[in-house]
Amino acid sequence: MTELRCALIGLSAITSAPMTPSLAGGRHPLPYSHAAALARIPGVTLAAVCDLLPEATARFVDQWGATWPDLRVYNDASEMLTLEEIDVLGVCTPDDKHADLVIAAAQRGIPAIMCEKPLATTLDDADRMIATIEKAGTVVAVEHTRRWDPFYGRVKELIDAGRIGEVLTVTGTLHGERAMLFRNGTHILDLMRWYAGASPVRVFGCLEPGFDDFTAYRGDGGREPSSEPGATAYIEFANGVRGLYNGTKGKIGHTEWDVLGTAGRIRINPAVTEFWTLDQETGELVQRPFPAGMVMTGALQGAYEDLIHCLRHGGKTRSDARDARDTVAIIDGILASNTQGGRLVEIR
């Protein structure tokens, strides 16, 4: 099997952090960063990396140079895309820089792209990306990490198997200092859409106080929480599922999804998983053991393995550009609704 040449653009911690031991349990000791994930996949090599800041590329080489001694370093993305033969490209730049880089890479003929979330910060950018990707035949995965996390993925399998009946509501909760709509809210909204099983059609929402004039992305790539608002929203999906999103800033950090169906309920967060189904005799909800396996693969590693499998064998990734557009569309709808005083708006 021919070895795949990979490259990464944007060398923040999510791209370059090494694997470190943890006493937190669960998934934490598994690959957290793009580099750590690629290092665990046979048949791939990291051929090149790029960042605008020379200190970022130097730091990356210090961390990963022993793993990939022939690594080539760039401070200009256009130069790297022109000079390097790349099979798989990771775009890990600030949120509002994804679109032009993904488009340039697809036009250059790079066959597979891993794009950090969100896909884009405007629907116009998302649509430009999709048009270019589909014209070029590029395979794309958007890094909504939990779609590849075995525990969160097991919830989707239980839903699809009908274990909680028809889904009625999906509630997503994001509390903490970084409960930012674009940066971390993207993860909550994407998994809500995945569990709902349909595209969003209508939404009303409001932003946290002090952001009445926030009508479009003006974040700084996620570094400063005050650059983006928290938000609360009600979402209607095309299949009738209703979603409730609560993104509230504060000192207490908490992330959770709660899926209620006609015959059961699943609640999942990083520390707790609850699986409830109706007892046939009493008609009451009874908690059951959550049927998850113990074999774990880091979510980013799973995302790259999925992308590489689709590159080699065809098919769509678990989170492709059209899936990811739905999350951008929900955020766009929340901003529009907030501007109109919380009115229910159609999602574009």
- How is the largest sheet built, in terms of strand order? 14-13-12-11-7-10-9-8-15
CATH class annotation of the largest domain: Alpha Beta
Number of helices: 10
Instruction: Fill in the CATH topology of the largest domain.
Output: Dihydrodipicolinate Reductase, domain 2
Would you count the extended β strands for me? 15
Mean pLDDT: 94
The helix/strand series, from N terminus to C terminus, equals: EHHEHEHEHEHEHEHEEEEEEEHHE
Unreliable runs: 23-27
Rounded radius of gyration (Å): 20 Å
| Residue share in helix | 25-40%
- Could you tell me the strand content as a percent range? 15-25%
Query: What class, by secondary structure content?
Result: alpha/beta
What does the overall shape look like? globular
What's the story with the biggest beta sheet? 9 strands, mixed
CATH superfamily of the largest domain: Dihydrodipicolinate Reductase, domain 2
Counted up, domains total 2
Q: End-to-end span in angstroms?
A: 43 Å
Which structural traits does this protein have?
348 residues, six-stranded parallel β-sheet, Dihydrodipicolinate Reductase, domain 2, alpha/beta, 32% helix, nine-stranded mixed β-sheet, 2 domains, Rossmann fold
Structure, explained:
With 348 residues, the chain is of the alpha/beta class. It is built from ten helices and 15 strands. It has helices at 13-16, 34-39, 54-64, 77-83, 98-108, 123-136, 150-160, 185-196, 299-313, 321-339, and strands spanning 4-9, 44-50, 72-74, 88-91, 112-116, 139-143, 167-175, 200-207, 231-237, 242-248, 254-261, 264-268, 273-278, 285-288, 345-346. A nine-stranded mixed sheet has the order 14-13-12-11-7-10-9-8-15, with helices on one face. Helix 8 (185-196) packs across helix 10. The radius of gyration is 20 Å and the shape is globular. The termini are far apart. 44% of the residues are buried.
